[in-house]
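Incident log, structure service

09:12 report received: a user says their structure output differs between two submissions of the same chain.
09:20 pulled the input from the user's history:
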Amino acid sequence: MTNFKYLVPTALAAALALTGCAGVAQPPKQDLPTAQSETTSPLVDEWWRNFNDPTLTTLVEEALAHNANVLTAAQNVTQSESALREATVALLPQVGLNGAVERQKPSQQTSLPGQTATVTIYQANVAASYEVDLWGRLWKARDAAKAQLAATQYAREVSRSAVAAQTAKSYFALLGLDADVALLTQTLATRDDALSLQKKRYAVGASGEFELKQAEAERAAVAAQLPTTIAAQTQAEAALSVLLGRSPREVVEGQVQRGQGLEALANAPEIPLSLPADLLTRRPDVELAAAQFAQADASLSEARRRFFPDISLSGLFGGQSLTAGSLLKSSARTWTAGAAIAQPIVGLASIEAEVEAAKASRNQAEIAYAQAARSAYADAKSALAAHQLTTDALTATTLRAQDESRIRELVNTRYKAGTASYLDLINAERDRLAAERDHVDALRDRVTALVSVYQALGGGWQPVALNDRMK
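09:34 re-ran on a clean worker, output below:
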């Protein structure tokens, strides 16, 4: 139960505390690790161009223009711009023009002598009212609306950054499946040739049933993998079409264009892989959390100012006449002026509850900002580590694929010379296929990890340009 005797002193103390409060609140400083570079490399901004694949650039730009999440985020910005305009208008005097024509006949029971005739009264007035924002409540409401606009702008950039990264990763996954399908198709053709040869050798007694069944089993193993991989390829292409914001007809009947293969994409230029000093301001999700903190802080300040009386001025100037043509005459002129003050008393308990709720929201926003900062550095650390590991894995799988291909050639030569068994040849073929598929996976993982680095370092948007728009 609220103790009312403390409410007025609380309000007065709050008034003193609010004196001199101004500016946008900044979230608390975080305990940050030592930076390894002063700023982020400029190659991070439109990172998709670093892969030198026009098709990838086209797909990312298509997604940024048509993806549903990006479009929704843009509409949220439009809503916040409207709310900011509304909060700004509230700071100005409210002026209105009104006119009226009234036909009336006074009651014979209540009218004064000589006033029983039916008359027509014409009125035209300009009315104005203004809330004197002595305590800055309306300005704080505007600050909250401005911070909300900033938050939706950063949320839009978060969406754009995520969509760009997901588009690239989905494209890389599709290229990986393309390469996998090509490998399996090529291997299946090789297995068909081997099976045909074994059937001929078995027919003339040059080999036994064991070799024939081995050839059939190896051919069946590859044939079983191919449909599953083609299905995954189809699913990946459809999912990418949805991500690009294409129509249902294009999703079903269209095709996602392919550009360079994974081998070429893996040659993307390296960027300095280090933790930059400006990481937090580079990340739109962290800036979003900061804007949400500023909004919550401004809303708390606005709520506290509701303890103080509302002071308003009003005025009316116009004319009243029995004929329309006489409205502009000085004898028809009317005016009123007034001032009003309203101080909540019983309502102070409700305001106190609003303040406590706003304070809790501000505390939540502060916690969310700290979490966003932690996550930013965790993402960066994980992405940099994954990039290094996938680069090492690509080097190893490249060497292995080359070695297994050479081993297969040597075993095939020995098999034709009769110094190696058919089982040796099958094992060499199987190892070569596995090595090449692992190499494709390593290529995909390497370029995907590079995208994660770009995203973790705040790539995909221009923070300086956005900050300029918010001034």
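09:41 both user submissions now match this output. Likely a transient worker issue. Closing.
09:42 reviewer note: The first strand starts at residue 94 and ends at 104. The chain has twelve helices and four strands.
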